[in-house]
Amino acid sequence: MSKIFVTKSYLPPQEEYIEYLNGIWERHHLTNQGPLVTELEAKLKSYLGLEQLHFCSNGTVVLQLALRALGIDGEVITTPFSYCATSHVIVWEKATPVFADILPDTLCIDPDAIEAAITPRTQAILATHVYGIPCDVDRIEAIARKHGLHVIYDAAHTFGVKLNGRSLLSFGDVATCSFHATKVFHTVEGGMITTPNAELAAQIKLYRSFGHTNDDYYDIGINAKNSEFHAAMGLCNLPKVGEIIADRKFVTELYDAHLNWDKIRQPVIPASVERNYAYYPVFFDSEETLLRVREALNAEEIYPRRYFFPSLNTLSFLRVNKACPVSEDMALRVLSLPLYPDLPEADVLRIASIINRNL
Fold it and tell me: Looking at domain 240-357, which of 1.10.1200.10, 3.90.320.10, 3.90.1150.10, 3.30.250.10 is its CATH number?
């Protein structure tokens, strides 16, 4: 039997990608906002119902662009339960992360903890829609308005997710998404940034490309552009998103039907959410149980992931002295199971059986 990892990147039919490559060879336009990048941005706007977005080189640089474009250099209230990029970019941009604990049911940042963490130096809230589960966007927006704060959403997991019929990427002053190879929709490497503010979007566009347009220089900037080759992958994959999500839903429902829910549980997902089935996290009763289950799966060459671990407030190099007991506890007990469109039904049942035997 072959090894089973937590995810496997979707690849479109090779001939479809080669057709786009043939066009790149004919045009010799490889990067610098080529026609495929322009086409992908237009199609993403239409698919997501967004007025403006910028396709960028990855899902981390877009967070950096968001902080820089908003002029953030003070305190940023953020979640300890996320991939490390969320907090790393704050420090990288010379701002200060302030961790607010999470809700135990969704693992998203707790609005009450946000409000309790606000100080005169607070400038922004940077929250993650964990596993594509929406944060309490209404509460967060109300808190931000009350205190004059910017809201940035790390929406790396949310492509295709809707809240009350609206793309989750449309919330906040700025939202970002990852198009990394492991995501539901990917461009091999890539990401996007969106904002409803046209002036801010124009500033982000400048920052993405060294701060200039042709020979007109306006500001500093970096190289956060993406290439025609990555856009080609995105153009191949975008029409397949509905099918990809449907296949992921099928695997999800198999797990739902065969795992022993007397001894494990899942995050709570509101009925108002249209899911993308990006991840399949389960909560164990203890870290000891998690490690026992993981060892049993690894023995069968099945490799789930502790996603997310550790709680980011415990990373010593961030120099944060802030306890987040819910996040610290949940990070010890959460395991993401293998989930991808062509994961065979027999393997899903085998994974569920191994887990149930070791609870």
Answer: 3.90.1150.10
